[in-house]
Amino acid sequence: MSSLRQPDISIVTCSYNQKAFLETAILSVLRQENVSFEYIVIDGASSDGSASVIDKYSSEIAYRVSEPDHGQSEALNKGLRRATGEIVGWLCSDDILLPATLQRVVELFKQHPDVDAIYGNAVLIDANGKVIRPKREIGFHPWLLCNDHNYIPQPAMFWRRKLHDQLGYLREDLHLTMDLELWLRFAKSRCKVLHVDEYLAAMRCHDSQKVFVQKEALHMENTILKVAYGSEWLNHVPQVFSRITRITLKAIGGGYTSSVPEPIVKALHDLHIESKKIT
Which pLDDT band, with edges at 50, 70 and 90, does 1 fall under? Predict the structure, then answer.
């Protein structure tokens, strides 16, 4: 439960017609313990009954709204501008925070006062919540992000809210790569970004995901970012070299492990069981 005092961390969830997954996402935040947090939910005037799910938890949500918007980036910015926590992050309505994640994130920022942003690993799950495989990642390398692909698990990334005062908010003209653009902006501004080899979130893979449905638009946005930021990080390096480097670093760090720790598998199973019972 969140406290009445200024929260240590704020989480924003944006959603549009994702009722099938929304309740599980909400519960994964509201079940966080031993941490002062603030939860903000921005719904884009869904027509599938999502508003009724959000209303069910109105007493535990600091701010909620269901109204038309111009896309995910605008919705997220609405929430981020309302956030009051020292630390912020966002959770899409089809993703999940793992138990004790927020407590651990706050601890990490306190342990590393010089760090601006922190991200961990994630677990990939399917539409039914079944574990597919771990997504154990490498450290923060902007030139690999720019020249290969965005390997950072977005729901496992958190940063100090004051960065928005310095760098601005999400680019609302980007609908698929707004997270990558923010990470590259962090890097260009010399923010210190720390990767921790811990599982913090679960990312759901399903057929209706925008990155799968809108592949041409995704390619176009990635091209825009490569043009905008490529000169900062070795734009002349062939992409194949970038990919080989990333794969090598990931292999050295044990990133290709095929197993997910059993306590995480159980926690995900229990959360989905709980959300089905409530529904």
Answer: very low
